[in-house]
Automatic annotation (TrEMBL):
The record marks E111 as: Important for acyl-CoA specificity. This is Homoserine O-acetyltransferase. One of its GO terms (molecular function) is homoserine O-succinyltransferase activity. It catalyses: L-homoserine + acetyl-CoA = O-acetyl-L-homoserine + CoA. InterPro entries: Class_I_gatase-like, HST_MetA, MetA_family. PANTHER family: HOMOSERINE O-SUCCINYLTRANSFERASE. The gene is metA. Transfers an acetyl group from acetyl-CoA to L-homoserine, forming acetyl-L-homoserine. Its main location: cytoplasm. The active site is at C142, H236, E238. Pathway: Amino-acid biosynthesis; L-methionine biosynthesis via de novo pathway; O-acetyl-L-homoserine from L-homoserine: step 1/1. It is found in: Cytoplasm.
Length: 305
């Protein structure tokens, strides 16, 4: 949240030069305040787990956020009780007349399939097109980021020789120059769990996109358009402490090829409790998105979108 200060306070220039978010009193007094409306398009099969992870981060802010949940009508989830979907979720047909301050498109376990072969691809494209006029800022996560980059900008994804699996150090491309990473340490950690990637050279060919953060091991992490209306994140900052463990144990039990997740277990020993390295960065990432790209930018009257 910004610091509201008197107009012409001498400290203002120093604070602004240090990239501290300030707001002059005349703007603070004139602000209209209302709850933020955020739409969560949950593409994960375990919807209750994913919605809990994301709500935990969205709720760690002084901002009041109202969340609507959506799933795709063209695919029936198998791992979420039907009564949960009926009670809490809506389909695109029921929400497409609304406007939202923000939207989150989650990952999905379909990354090894061509986009066009995903059962709900056409519906997802319709939703992403709709978001251009009905959502102020959309946050795409993991496969959702790959799908968004492909749909909006034609950026392809590539198969990896082995699964990108673990918790990896990342750095910001231009420190102190992007609001999404205000307050971040020089090195921050993010979990990844994916079989595919997007590549820097493809993104750099498009002048409408900016790479904001990356990892020497995990590659491109955050990509955004010029005004933050579309943000693409290839990792899983929302993961719980034991999410990677659950995935690892599942694959081991099914005798699938899987490496021990990097930088996760002390001494690389799966018998020991994992160490959480990403929690503070995850909370700051979502708080910054809500504050700088949603709350500070969305018109008070959402019909003006």
């Amino acid at each position: 949240m910004p610091i509201a200060i008197p107009n012409n306070l001498p400290a203002a220039n120093i604070l602004e030069s240090e990239n501290v978010f300030i707001m002059y009193e005349d703007r603070a007094y004139s602000q209209d305040i209302r709850p933020l409306k955020v739409l969560l398009l949950n593409l994960m099969p375990t919807k209750i787990v994913t919605e809990t992870q994301l709500l935990r981060l969205l709720g760690n802010s002084p901002l009041q956020v109202e969340v609507d949940f959506m799933y795709t009508a063209t695919h029936t989830p198998k791992h979420t009780p039907q009564e949960h979907l009926i009670k809490f979720y809506e389909t695109f047909d029921t929400i497409k007349s609304r406007n939202y301050d923000g939207m989150i498109i989650t990952g999905a376990p379909v990354e090894q399939m061509p986009f066009e072969q995903v059962a709900y691809w056409d519906e997802l494209c319709e939703i992403m097109e709709w978001s251009k006029k009905h959502v102020y800022s959309t946050l795409h996560i993991c496969w959702g980021a790959q799908a968004g980059l492909y749909y909006h900008y034609g950026i392809p994804k590539y198969s990896l020789p082995e699964k990108m699996f673990g918790v990896f150090p990342h750095n910001i491309i231009s420190p102190n120059q992007d609001k999404l990473f205000r307050g971040f340490d020089d090195i921050f950690y993010v979990p990844h769990s994916r079989h595919t990637e997007v590549r820097r050279e493809d993104i750099e060919k498009n002048s409408a996109l900016r790479i904001l953060s990356e990892s020497a091991a995990a590659g491109v992490h955050t990509v955004a358009d010029s005004d933050g209306r579309q943000i693409f994140i290839t990792g899983h900052s929302e993961y719980d402490p034991l999410t990677l463990k659950s995935e690892y144990d599942r694959d081991i039990s099914q005798k699938l090829p899987i490496n021990i997740p990097c930088n996760y277990y002390p001494g690389n020993d799966p018998s020991k409790p994992p160490v959480v390295l990403w929690r503070s960065a995850a909370n700051l990432l979502f708080s910054n998105w809500l504050n700088y790209y949603v709350y500070q930018e969305t018109p008070f009257d959402l019909s003006r979108l």
